[in-house]
Every structure is written in structure tokens, then in C-alpha cells.
Amino acid sequence: MRPKARSLRRQLLAWLLALLIPLLLIGGVTSYFRAYQFANLAYDRSLFRTALALADQVEVVKGKVVVDLPQKALDLLEYDKDDLVYYRLTYPQGNTIAGDANLPLPTVLPNAGKYLYYDATLGEKLVRVVAFSLPLMGTSAQGTALVQVAETKSKRDQLASEIITAMMLPQVLIVLLAVFMVHYGVRRGLASLDTLQHAIEQRSHRDLSSVPIEDSPREVQPLLHSMNKLLQRLKESIAVQQRFTANASHQLRTPLAGLQTQAEMALRENDPVRIRYALEWIQTGTVRLSHLINQLLSLARVEPASGRETNLHTLDLVQIARETTSEWVSAALARQIDLGFESSQLQISISGNALMLREMLSNLLDNAIRYTPSQGKITVAVSVDGKYVKLTVEDNGPGIPLDERERVFERFHRLPESTGDGCGLGLAIVREIALIHQAEVAIADGTDGRGTLVTVRIGLREQLNRPNSASPA
Amino acid sequence: MRILIAEDDPALADGLTHALDQAGYAVDCATNGEQANLMLHDAVYDLAILDIGLPRLDGTEVLRRLRQRGSKTPILVLTARDAIEDRVLGLDLGADDYMTKPFNLVELEARVRALIRRGQLGSNMALMCGSLALDTSARRARCGELTLDISAREIGVLEVLMLRQGKVVNKEQIMEALCTWDEGLGNNAIEVYIHRLRKKLEMSGARIRTIRGLGYLLEEEKANAT
Fold it and tell me: Would residue A314 count as lying in a domain?
């Protein structure tokens, strides 16, 4: 047993989040880089313009590079509402003419007239730097002067974070929305099940009508279909049961009424002949009634609804059939019927319940003896037929009409022109026992189209079956 | 012949008493287990018919105490329950036969006769079938006053058949009874014995029937039987 039933909602969420969260993370990382790229794109230009403005102020006086920056220009240069701006003018290499000497130089110097951007650290601050190689050709100086302008990254950080927020917010919202939708969707989807549950809870145990399935989600409909089929079968089996009870009470009360009437008649009579006549009726009625009660009880015993465990063991069908047939010999002789037994094997192993198999054969023999006329012949035979064992009871009695051969297995069903005093339960018992043994029962014509041949086909137990070496007596 | 009936249902007890009384037995009746136990203790019966569901003391308990005392009185157990366990328990405790209620009176009478006969087998009682009588200790068969000329092996076969009169006796059972004489007796030998016996029993009122595929059955020949 599972410790806890799996929640559909939790499973869906788990799957969804397992997919969405990595996507969100990847999105976050790429957004971060993209945002910084955009922020740099936006601000690098103005940084470069500042560098150009600074370069404009560079003059060469007698081979010396000077920069004249009035305080106002410096203030302007260094003024920025968000960031601190630094500059450095270097000429020749490494020699700071003006500005902040701590501003790191680029690792590779740009060619004359070219510029490049890079990130650096100034003191403890992260800065963005533009380095511009100012060509000094046509002047008294030679080579290039390096103009660097740097600014801290507040603006850029702010822009980047704005971009990230703008990019990530919808994504986070989508995830949250998805979680909500799954939650809500599942609840909504299962809401019809809740309604169904209420409807079923409030049903009476007698109400076995089908559960409405049209309003249910398509995924649940197969389940409801099976449930409805089960309800249908239950309804049928209860109907069978009720019919059986109605039949049984009729079948039990009728002979009792007969007994009571005959007994009352006998008490009223003074004529010994008439009393004897009534008593004979009472005796016949009692015998029939006790046969009926015995049959009802054995049917109840073998019915699946009896709830009894049926133990199946390996047993020898030849022995069971031989012994059971022997028990019926006197009954057959009393009616001058020739009852015999045949077996192709000395022993045939099957898996079954000995008591039930005896009961089954007894019922078949009881029927055969009841309905076979005097001087008739009944033969019980056991043989192996491929993977099956055939147990047959054949008689040369009146036979069973073709259209009755299925109905005779119904409880209390008797042939319309039945002359015997059976109660109509024998073959029902036979069928129940056959079902327990996963065996088939079939009724056919006897040899030469006369009489009845009842065949029970039982699965063979895979074992060595000894062939019958001894000749039958 | 004295029979004890231990049965608490008055109608059934009365019916049984009358029937067995008419058949010539001396019948005593106990209506509960304690009474039955005392009566079986104080008197010697040729047979006791014991209901399993007796008040005060259960029938199985009466039976158990009886066998504990070493009594060999034949016991016919009556039971309304047909659970197989009950039957097995009864037979295990030493019942000689059982019948399930309701039963046929004729059959009960037949079983009573058989049990009494079996109970007296040790005391030189002859087995009877029609006018045929078999003295099991002297190993002689008579038809009326005429002693039949039957061999020892044939007597053996006849004894098995007479002990199970009216029931099917298969070849294995006959072979078992004869194995003191012959080792590995063939099927044909039995057929030969049966054939000879049939001839010798022709006028005895006893008849051996062949039951197809099952064996043989000894029965009293009915006057109207063909």
C-alpha cells in the first residue's frame, strides 16, 4: 500500500515547475547580460563624446602636450547627476599630464585615432572607461596622446536593472499565473467529480441506476463507464437473486400447503383407506420437500455469493467418478436401469474440489435416473481430450429438446412436459460447480440421436496420467 | 435385539420407536445426552441411534465417553447438519455409520439391520442373502438346509460380496480379500470365480450382478425381477 494517495494537482504542479523554473533561470541570466549590453550601448557614446571634448582641449606647445581646462570646463566635464567622472591624459606613454593618474590604462592601446571601451576598477569603484588615441601628427609632438574618460556605473546599473525588471517581470508573472491556473484548472476540472461524489453519497443503497457521465471530464468517463457496467451487473445479479427468492418461496410453500391440506384431511377422515391415501400423499410431499431443501442448501453452498473459500486440490477424477457412480448403482437398479462406468485412463489428475465434483456428478446421475425410463441405460465416462478431461453422463431416455438445452441450467426451470419429480435446481448446481472449476457443461444428443449426453470439460492438470492397462470389468 | 434411540425431537423419536418396535426390536428412548449417556452406561445395547444435536450433552460427547469406556456397541449417528466436518468427526470418534436428516425410514431400517449384523459378526453370526447363509467362521455356505459345494477362494469372494450386500464391490476389493491365497491374481481369475459362484447360487435367491465398469453387486433376487 502507498502511504499517501498521489495528488493530481501536486503532480501537475511539480511537472510544470520542473519545466518553468530552469527556463526562468536561463532567461534571468541571459537578460542580465543583454541588459548590461544595452546599458553600455546607450551610455558609451556619451562617454566617448566627453573624451572627444577633452581631446579638443589638447594642444601642443613647442613639442609639449598641454591641456587647458578652465575650472568651468572641468566642472562641466566632471558634472553628472548620477555618476562620478574621471579623466586622464597621458603623453608620452605612462606620463600623466592631467587627470587621475590612478585610472588604469587599457591592456592594449588603440591605434591612432581609434578608441576602445573597457571595464576597470578605480580605487574600490567599478568604472567604465573609454580610451581614445589622439593623433598628434602635424604638430611639433609625435605619436599619440591617450585620452581616457571613466565614469562609475550607477546609471548603467540602473538602466540594466530597469531592463532586467522589464524583461523578467512578465516571465515571473507567467510562472505564477501557470501555478495558479493549474491549481484552479484542476479544481475546476475535478469540481464535476465533487458533484458526482455528493450525488453518489446521497444515493440510497437500492438505487443502482447509472451515474450520469455526460457532465464529467472526458478523462474520467471511462472510469464512470466501468462503474456503470458494474452497477448494471450488480442490478442484474440482484434481480436474479430476487427472482430466485420469489421462486424458492413459491416452491417451498406449495408442497407445504399440500402437506397441511392432506394432514387436515386425514384427521377429518374415519375411513382407513382414505386416511392411508392422504398419508401416502404426505409421504410423497415430504420426500419432495426434503429433496428441494437439500438442493437449495447445496446451491447456496456452491454459489460464489456464499462467500466460502473453495479449496482446489489435485485429485483423481477417475476415482471420484467411479466412487460416485457406484453410490448410485442401487438407485439405478431399483428402477431397473443399467448404470455403468467407463474410463480410458486408470487415473486423471485435475485441480478441483472433491466434494463439489461428487455433488456435480450426483446431480447429473440423479437427473439421468429420474428421467430415464425403466430398462434404460446410463453410462458415466471419463476420458482425456487434448488439454481437457471429459466427464460425460449419457442416457437413452427421452432427451432434451434443442431449444431447452440452455434454459435447463436456469434455476427452477423444468422441461414443459417433465414427468419426474425433480425441483429444477440440479443442473443449476452443476453449472455453479462447473464455473468454480472453470469447466464447461454442454448438453447434446446421445448416441444415434437418442437420449441425452451431458459433457463436462475440465482443464487437465499437467501431469502424467496413467493409461488404463487393465480391462474394465 | 435391544436398541437405544437418543433423539430430542418427539415426533422423530416416536416415529423411530414405532418403526423399530414393529420390526421386532426392543427399543428404549432417551431425550437428552445425559440420559443417553447413563443408559448406555447401565445397559448393554445391540445398537444405539444417536442424534448429534442433543440437549445437555452433545451426541459427539456421548459417543466419545462410550468409546472411552471401551464399549463396542454399534452407533448410528443422525445429523441435521451436513457439514462434512461433522460427519468426519462422528466417524473419527467411533460412529459406525451416519445418516443426514431427513432420511428415508426404509433406508434407516436397512442400515440398522446391517449394523446389528456387523456387530454380531464376531459372534458366529451367519451372513444372509435370500435363502443363502454364509457361516464366516466355519467358512461354509448353505442354501436352506443344503450345504453348497464352494471352494475356499469362492467363499472369500462371496464373503466380500455378502458383507457389502446391495453395494458395488470392485475388483480391487475382491483381490484384496483373496490376497492371502494368491499373489498377483489376474482379472480373469476373478471373472472365473464369479462365473462359478453364479452357477452355484442359481437357486439360492441371491444374485450377483455385473455392474459395467465398476464391479459386482450381490442382491436378493426379487420374485418379480426379470
Answer: yes
